[in-house]
Amino acid sequence: MSAAPRHGIGRRIAYHRSVARLTQQQLADAAAIHVGTLRKIERGVRGVSDSVLEAIAAALGIDPSLLQADREQASTRIQHALPAISAAIAAYDLPEDGPIRPLTQLRAAVDEAVRWRLAAQYVQIASRLPELLAELFRAFHIAPAEQRPHLAALLVAACRSADAVAYKAGAHDLSARLIDLMRWAAPAADDHLLDSTVAYVRTETFFAAGTHAVGLRALEHALDATPSPRWPAVIAARGALHMRAAVIAGRAGNATAADTHLAEARLLGDHVPEAIYSGTAFGPSSVRIHEVSVAVSLGSDHVQRALEVARQWAPPVDLPAERRSGFYIELARAQLWAGLAADAFESLKVARKIAPQHTRSHRWVREDAGTLRRLKRADAETLTSFAEWCNAT
Questions:
Q1: 8 and 59 housed in the same domain
Q2: Could you tell me the residue range of the domain that residue 42 belongs to?
Q3: What is the distance between the alpha carbons of residues 42 and 243, in angstroms, rounded to a whole number?
Q4: Is residue 162 exposed (0-12), middle (13-18) or buried (19+ Cβ within 10 Å)?
């Protein structure tokens, strides 16, 4: 999405920065942007993207709407875009005529959407994916035989990025339809690892429905169908499925299965470097994050496991923003269960700084911020602002 210069936004940023008694350098450091960029934004000579605006708001501890009075909130813009995604996939088998870019350009566009997903930039996905999906369907149906596997793989990746928006926005029916399209396209790609990717993403439908035991069986079936782990891509595919299985086993209350799958994921993670494999982050750091996820999934009796991980380790900054923010969101829940309200609030603020759109859309953030607002009295103004920002329950 283009970011046209907006003098009003720059003035509002400068005003709230002065209220917070921060220098431009201090705010830039807190928002993880270059100070020269901030200076240009405040002067109104440079545009500001959604991600930068939300990072600045998070650093200031305020609702982004206070800075973007002339712009819709990110959550509103995402909700408005969902019908366009739905329309784009409704005619997947009967696409309308239209332009089709060369395969190299389509691959670059899908790669960009994947980067947005990993960085939790849902507004960008919502605004760009409808047209990209429609174009990919057109290309797939008229492509020569030698290009169809490539286009099928691109369709799987594009649908996964669109699904990230739908699922995070609570549009679970749309999410399920996108996952069905992934399952439809994957066989044409002639890549068995894509089947593992689809199985990993499909778990969302079981999370949404609360059918955790069924989801665990589906993941174990996918593991049985995955090739033996003889090279890094397959090791990562199996490891990611084990991570996912550990979490959903925890949600099912099956501690034995959760521990077994987590141990398998840990073993596989020790054999590959942390990286993005087939669109999924996997490696030692991702497994460590899932140790917290599993502990929280198993319930309040297991919070010490999550707290112990956090005492010894923090996610490195080169991990995808969505995964890092998820670590702090789940850690906050464990801290809240342990009676560490102040620590829980700090974790939620860290999550917001890392990935504002992911944090704001997360159901647990709304629930926990609401609980904190009811329980906590210190720094009430900042806590109230955070609760209002995430529409706390």
A1: yes
A2: 1-71
A3: 44
A4: buried
